[in-house]
Every structure is written in C-alpha cells, then in structure tokens.
Design a protein that fits this description.
The structure holds two protein chains of two kinds. Chain A is mainly β. Helix content of chain A is 4%, strand content 46%. Chain A has one domain: YVTN repeat-like/Quinoprotein amine dehydrogenase (Methylamine Dehydrogenase, Chain H, 7 Propeller), CATH 2.130.10. Chain A contains two helices and 29 strands. Chain A has a five-stranded mixed beta sheet with strand order 6-7-8-9-13, with no helix packed on it. In chain A, strand 8 and strand 9 form a beta hairpin. Chain A is globular, with a radius of gyration of 22 Å. Chain B has one domain: Porin (Beta Barrel), CATH 2.40.160.10. Chain B is built from five helices and 20 strands. In chain B, strand 13 and strand 14 form a beta hairpin. Chain B is globular, with a radius of gyration of 21 Å. The relative contact order of chain B is 0.17. The chains are: A mainly beta, B mainly beta. Chains A and B meet through helix 1 of A and helix 1, strand 1, strand 2, strand 16 and strand 18 of B.
Chain lengths: 396, 419
C-alpha cells in the first residue's frame, strides 16, 4: 500500500465502522381507540397535564397558564369531539425564573360544603442544579367558582434552607387535605379547609423527605386505602402513613435502583409505576411499567415489569375507574405514544392497544363523560396539543 | 452514496481560478470555499463503545462583494453541512442545538450580511461608523472555530460565539481601528435544523456589545456582554442566558495565539457555565503544528433513547440533568502540500485530543455511567482544502473588506502585516 492510498483506506474504514442506530419495530396498534380531536396549544412550552372532571377539562399549559375547556359539561356546548374554551388564566410567576410554568392541577370538590370553588395549580420552576437535585415553584390557588372568570386568590411556598418546588397532587377531599409531591422537598400535606386567601404557609400540616436529603425527588402521590403512596425518582415507591396529614414512613422505599422512577397509580391492591429514562441510571435501557402488589399492611412488593423499548419515559400512569385497564403515556423515542394494558390479571398486565404519537405524550388521563370513557393526552412540542380519544370499547 | 457526495462536493469546492478581485472601486466580487474530508475515531460514545466515521465537514462557499465605491458590502456564506453531516460530526465534548458529542451541522445560509462599512466616510472625521444587517454573527466573543487552526470544534462554541441570527449591528471605530465598539440586536433563538431561518418575530429580543482594542499590530483584546432571550426554545418560553466573554488574540507572521474566557449564566443564575481556552499555531515552512487547551463546563440535557447523541428538541420544559466539566488537550499537525492552482491550498492534517470529563455538582448525569469511562480520546485525519477563504473573520462587520490572499490563522500569515 502506498502513502497515497492511506487516506482512502481510512475513509473506507470509517464508513465501514459507522453503524446507524436501528430502532426496534413499534408495537402493533389497535383500532379500539378512536382519535376524536386534536386541540392545538400555544408552544409556550405547551401542554403539560390535564385534570378532567364533570365534563370540564383543565389544561395546564405552562406559560400560557391554565385553559378551561367544556368537553361535555354543557356550560358552553362543548364535547370531547369539539372542546370549547371557557376561559383561561395565567397565574403569577411569583419571582420564579422561567415564568408561571403551569404544570398540573386538581379541582377541589369539597364534600363538606359542596363547593367546587378552588383549583390548585402546580408551578414547575427550574430544576435548580438539575433534575434529581433541586427544584422551584409554588402551589397557586385559583377561584373557579365562576369558570368563566377564574382568578388567583392564594399561594403556598414551602420555606426551607434549600429551594424546593411542587409537582403532582392528590387530595383527601373529605379531610380537605392537599398532598403534593415536592421533588427534593419530598411530600407536603396542606390544610385547604375553609376560605383560602393570600399566603398559605401557615396551612402546612407536615412535610417529609421520604428518602432523606440527597435521595429524594418525589414525582407523585396517590392516596389509597388509608395510605399515601409516594413515587420518588431516586428512591422508588413508598407507603406513607397520612393520619390527617401527619406523614411518616410505613413501608417500601429504595426499591428501584436500575432506573429513575416516574409516575404511579394505585388500584385494587396493586400499584403501577413508570420509569424516567431520559438519562440512563445504569446500563439498562428502555423504560418500564412496574407492577407492585400491596401486602396485608399495604407495603409494595414488585411482581412484574413491562419494558417498552425506544422510549425515554413512561411519563404518566393511570388505571381506569373500573380497574380493567392501565394506561400510560410514553415519550422520547420512536415508540412514543399512548399504551393500554388489560388488568384481567392485575398482577400481570397484558397488551391491549397502542396509539403512536411521534412527538411523544407528556401526560394522559381518563375522562368519564356522559357514560363514555375518553383518554386525554398532552402532546409534546413542537406542535403541542390536547389529544382526545374515545376508549369506551377498550375500557368497558 | 456518501463517498459520491463527498467527491462531488470536493470537486465543486476545489476548482480554482474564479475571479478574485478586490478594491474600493469599481464593484468587485470574490468567491472562496473550504471543505475538510476527515476521518475521526473516538470513544466519546454513549454506552462505552468506540466508533469511527468519515465525513465531509465545513463545506462552505463564500461570496464577498462591494459596490458604490465600497460603500456597500456583502458577506454571504453557504454551509452544506446539512447535507454532509445531517447527524453531526463526532467531536468529543461538543454540544448544542440538540446534539451531544457530535458537533451540529450549521444552517445552509450561514451568513448573509449587507454592510455599510463606513457611513461617515464622506465627513472625513477621525471615527468610522459601520452598519450591518442580515443573518450572521452577533458582536460577541471570539472568532468562529471554523476559521481557526484545529479541525474539530472546541466544546465552548455555544459559550463563546453567537451566530446564525437575524442581526443588526452598529460599529463605531477610531482611526486606524485601534478601538472598536459594536452593538447588536438579534433574535435569541438558536437554529433547530439546517434549513431553518431565524424566528424573525423575535428580532430584537436579545442584544450584545463588544469592545475591541488593538494597541499594536497583530494584538487584539476584546470584552463582550450579551443578553440572549430563550435561546433553547424557539417560540420564546425558555429561560434567558447572560453571557460574558473576554479574550486576547495575537497574530503576527507565522505565529498565532488566542486566550479566552467566557461565562454563560442561565435561568437567573441557576446554571452557570465557564470556559477557559488557550490555543496557538506556528507555521514553519510547510509545517504547521498547533495546540489547544480547553476547560469548559457544559449542561447535560435529557437524551433521546433511540440516539443518545441527541437531546430532546424542542425542549419539553426542564431538561437539564446535570453539568460536566471537560478538560481537553488537543494537538495537531498540518502539512501545506504544494498545489499549483492559484488560491487553492491543501493541508493534510492529523489531530489528536484527550479529554477528562468530570461531573459538576450532583446532577443525575454521571459520565462514568454514560460513557463507561471518564477519560476519552479522539483522533482525526483530514485534509483541509481551502480555496481563497482569505481569513474571513466571520462576525466582524466593522472593518474594511479583507484583502485577497489572507488566510486562516497559522496557515498563510499575511494578515497582521497588512494592518
């Protein structure tokens, strides 16, 4: 070989060494889901979560605020097929860099007073030091007694030596307690009884860094059968005692170390949790739906897991109200979209349906409207949208 | 197919002998181009593997023109990397625009600027005023790495330059260009893919200023400051970046050196990234050794599962999962091959780099897990084919047009003497 030939050898060697990534084939799709509508949301960043109740869909749309749609309530003639915007509100940025960052919410129906007055909104500020380390953001309280005229009336900021910020909510409506996942702040219990106004810092009942400092980044909470289940990105699924808001550890924890955990839902003696794999925690690839059986004390023990290749996160998990189907949204890969698994055997879900959405879905939730079941999902940027499917035949 | 494309682009870039005329009057036009076929092998690969790729990088065609007795000037550059490296160029530590450890392709229209280089010329005053507008560089930081000796980009490209923006620049300079102050308005959004234009509706949401002092021939100091609104989120919902840069550049005869420091603070100071870089080159006959030392911090974004060289774009919201510090030493050697074809220069070059990557803070991103190691290497062999690029220092719209025959620092040094 001559020196003149050397560059060509290098060139050929380089071409031969390069292997383009080959994505695995997507799961089979199913015709039992019917896409009804796609409602564009301003790319500001876009839509993050939804809360659907009584035919009203609250769409949490980052710096566009909360958008309130009639999707079957009738107040504006809207339907799942044709949502009608009732009103919107951009909550206060509260000095958080990045703006209002409206992420999630819960419409509080107070069974003691029959009021449907308050909407709690989670502000997901910047992750200070990075995801898994720090967070920022407040809980904002919006008066929605007149859905066409929502207005902010109160806020809660968790004080402390380090910055913490809120994520997903659950409520004990009977006891008028809001439970909030608080990332590196752990779990917060807040008394939301009576009239809410101004600074609610005095309403804090308790807070708990469930995995300890440096091992806590709590994604979500779910009240079930007297226990509060908290899913933590770093330290896994926990069972907490939540006696009128006083928090203590009952079981679980430090039980998922191969991947970072994401969302969870608890139903019928089982918990279903996802994983967040935008960055691998270990060499294991693919995102997972993990199944936990709750023992006699309610402590979770893993019984099954379902790996979905070519996604970066099982980003939201929910079980249908009749317990027949678990649904999860997926993002960050070629197999992104909406997945449904049958819970005929709740310990070992079996595949039912997949609806591909290439941009990925950040969250998904069921809506029960006029006897039908719908899936509402948040499509990611660059064309963020509220997507609505009729999944009645799948779920019932 | 890829080899055919490489050959075709080389053929289109290399031919010589097109008009090369410069002057103050009459109208003039000058064409130039550059391309580097390069083979790079590296173990800066997610998952712990090593890989090698041959690509054609930095294939650019440049047009400069002047008219109306040089009262109006055009700087245009087409960059074909969207075709030749659509998935980026293997470059340890490089990041930006949705790429990691692959330097992203630039946009097809890399620069398209119309300049009035001396608005006050007819007044005969001691100062000069230049006005420029179009798509190009904001007046901030140091020269684009494309015009500097190493073949592979440094990590700090997105900390030290602001480019491919819809920009309007005003530049005031003293006689003999000893002091120049530039100010620019531009759009904050970075490109997301090669065919994308700036978001025109965001023009003016970001600004930068740069003060340049040239106390002696070949010696230049600059200090820059920029406010960039939502660079990572095109519609404008992202956090802002506050940027600072200072550098000392020296170029005289066959010798070239650069020392720079820059800092970018994002989200109101929640994330702060620094860079310190020193590089130098020396031409000795046909030989051109060069060296670059760099220590740069970069954000680590969420990666996409199908391609861990890529991060999610557009952002979903919070996407930073940590930060890393890259300490890289790069050494290279180029040989100016004899070519009897006018302005054409051909320089076979070998370049090697060794990098040490460390976690900054306590984010989720752990380089030891991600790469399977903390010490990474890169070795490249390429041929820099330059056809009259003439040392066009992109982003400097204040001065007079570059005289023909100028060259890249450390290659053909006729620049400093001309000043």
């Amino acid at each position: 070989m001559t020196r003149r030939q050397m560059p060509f050898l290098f060139l050929l060697a380089g071409v031969a060494c390069h292997k383009d990534a080959v994505a695995p084939p997507p799961p089979p799709t199913c015709s039992q889901t019917s896409l009804l509508d796609t409602v564009p949301i301003a790319p500001n960043y876009g839509i993050h979560d939804m809360f659907v109740r009584d035919g009203i869909a609250f769409v949490f749309a980052w710096n566009s605020g909360v958008l309130i749609y009639d999707v079957g309530n009738g107040v504006k003639g809207g339907l799942p097929l044709c949502p009608v915007l009732i009103s919107s509100l951009v909550t206060s940025a509260s000095g958080i860099s990045g703006g209002p960052a409206v992420h999630n919410g819960w419409w509080f129906w107070n069974p003691n007073t029959n009021e449907k007055k308050y909407l709690f909104i989670g502000q997901e500020g910047p992750a200070i030091g990075g995801i898994g380390v720090g967070s920022a953001g407040l809980i904002h309280v919006v008066d929605v007694s007149d859905l066409s005229n929502p207005h902010e009336v109160a806020y809660f900021h968790k004080a402390g030596t380090d910055s913490t910020g809120t994520h997903n909510f659950w409520m004990d409506e009977q006891k008028q307690i809001l439970y909030a996942a608080y990332y590196n702040g752990g779990v917060v219990a807040l008394d939301v009884s009576g009239a809410l106004s101004g600074d609610l810092s005095s309403r804090l009942i308790d807070s708990l860094r469930i995995g300890g400092k440096g091992n806590t980044y709590t994604w979500g909470v779910h009240l079930y059968n007297g226990s509060l289940y908290a899913i933590d990105m770093l330290s896994g699924l926990w069972q907490l005692n939540a006696n009128s808001g006083a928090l203590s550890i009952a079981g679980g924890g430090n039980n998922e170390s191969a991947r970072y955990s994401s969302d969870c839902w608890v139903f019928g003696g089982y918990a279903y949790s996802g994983t967040w794999d935008w960055i691998r925690r270990t060499s294991q690839s693919g995102a997972m739906l993990k199944v936990w059986q709750l023992g006699g004390t309610g402590a979770p023990a893993p019984v099954d897991s379902i790996i979905t290749p070519s996604i970066s996160a099982v980003s939201d998990v929910e079980v249908s109200s009749n317990g027949k189907v678990v649904m999860f949204s997926a993002e960050g890969g070629t197999n992104s979209g909406l997945y449904f698994y049958s819970l005929t055997n709740p310990a070992h879900p079996t595949f039912l349906a997949y609806y591909p959405v290439s941009a990925g879905l950040h969250t998904a939730t069921f809506g029960y409207i006029n006897g039908n079941v719908y899936a509402f999902a948040a499509r990611n940027p660059g064309s963020p949208a509220l997507m609505i499917w009729d999944v009645t035949s799948l779920v019932q | 197919m890829r080899l055919t494309l490489v050959a075709a682009l080389c053929a289109a870039t290399v031919p010589a002998g097109v008009c090369a005329q410069s002057g103050s009057s009459p109208p003039w036009i000058r064409l130039a181009g550059e391309a580097i076929p390069v083979l790079t092998g590296t173990n800066a690969v997610p998952g712990g593997a090593a890989t090698a790729e041959a690509r054609l990088v930095q294939p650019v065609l440049m047009v400069q023109a002047g008219a109306l007795a040089d009262r109006v000037r055009l700087d245009a550059m087409a960059d074909l990397e969207g075709w030749t490296i659509p998935n980026g160029e293997l470059t340890a530590g490089a990041y930006g625009e949705g790429f990691y450890d692959r330097r992203h392709p630039h946009t097809y229209v890399h620069e398209l600027m119309v300049t009035l280089p001396d608005v006050l010329r007819d007044l005969g005053g001691p100062a000069g005023l230049a006005l420029a507008a179009g798509k190009g560089f904001a007046p901030f930081g140091t020269d684009d790495p494309m015009g500097r000796p190493p073949m592979l980009y440094p990590v700090n490209h997105h900390l030290s330059q602001l480019l491919e923006r819809a920009v309007a620049v005003a530049a005031l300079r003293t006689a003999r260009d000893h002091v120049t102050i530039e100010g620019g308005l531009f759009n904050g959004d970075e490109p997301e893919y090669p065919s994308e234009w700036p978001n025109w509706t965001r023009f003016g949401d970001s600004w930068s200023v740069r003060l340049t002092v040239a106390p002696a021939a070949g010696l230049e100091w600059q200090g820059s400051r920029a406010h960039v609104h939502s660079p990572e989120h095109r519609p404008g919902a992202g956090t802002d970046a506050e940027k600072w840069s200072t550098s000392l550049r020296w170029e005289r005869g066959p010798r070239y050196g650069l020392l720079e420091w820059a800092q970018t603070s994002e989200a109101g100071g929640l994330y702060v990234f620094h860079t310190l870089l020193a590089e130098g080159a020396w031409r000795i006959g046909r030989h051109r050794p060069y060296l670059r030392l760099e220590r740069t911090e970069r954000p680590e974004d969420q990666r996409v599962s199908d391609d861990e060289f890529r991060s999610a774009r557009p952002h979903l919201d919070n996407s930073i999962v940590g930060a890393t510090r890259w300490s890289i030493g790069t050494i290279g050697y180029g040989y100016g091959a004899p070519v009897a074809a006018g302005r054409l220069t051909v320089q076979p070059t070998i370049e090697a780099a060794i990098a040490r990557v460390a976690r900054v803070g306590s984010g989720l991103f752990d380089p030891a897990v991600f790469y399977g190691r903390r010490t990474l290497y890169s070795i490249s062999f390429g041929v820099r084919i330059d056809w009259g690029m003439a040392g066009h220092r992109m982003g400097h719209y204040a001065g007079a047009p570059m005289p023909p025959g100028m060259a890249m620092p450390g290659m053909e040094h006729q620049v400093s003497e001309a000043r």
